[in-house]
Each structure stands twice: as C-alpha cells, then as structure tokens.
Design a protein that fits this description.
about 90 residues; mainly beta; Nuclear Transport Factor 2, Chain: A; 5-stranded antiparallel beta sheet; about 70% strand; elongated
Length: about 90
Amino acid sequence: MSKLADLPSYPDLVLGVMLVPEDETVAAIHSAMERCWAMQDELFFDDAAASPIAYLHGYGHYHERYVRIDGTWKFRSVELRRLQVETRPR
C-alpha cells in the first residue's frame, strides 16, 4: 500500500473508472447543506508516465458542501476522502 502523498498526479492518468452510487444528505440547515457520496475508483497509469505505480483501486467518499443564496442552492466545495487505497507497482 502506498501513502496518498506518494501517489502520482492525475495528468499521468491514462484511464479511470469511477462508481458513485446515490448520495446521502448528511446535514442541512436553512442556509447550508452537506452531501456525502460513496465512491470507488480504478485508475490505470500510462507506461510512459513518471509514476511508481501502474494501477490504483480506491474506496472512499466525496463530501460536497452547498450554500443557499437568495433561495437557490449554490455549490461551495468538494473534498475526496479515500478510506482505502490498493496499488500495483510497475
């Protein structure tokens, strides 16, 4: 297993597959809302990339935050939190 800081950046990505089932509203008040999406992805890195890994399989959640402005929900931020990462070296 690699540390997340050691993983290559997305420009070296050749192919990615992501599964995101339905979301769950975590918290909602009058002017703010947070939603959580479970996710699973597989990333395949190019042989020519400067990456120490060829393959990544990750599991985690997307956390999205919204704010209500003049009665309309507006996107504020998104954060990906991977709970488990499996990699295959070159």
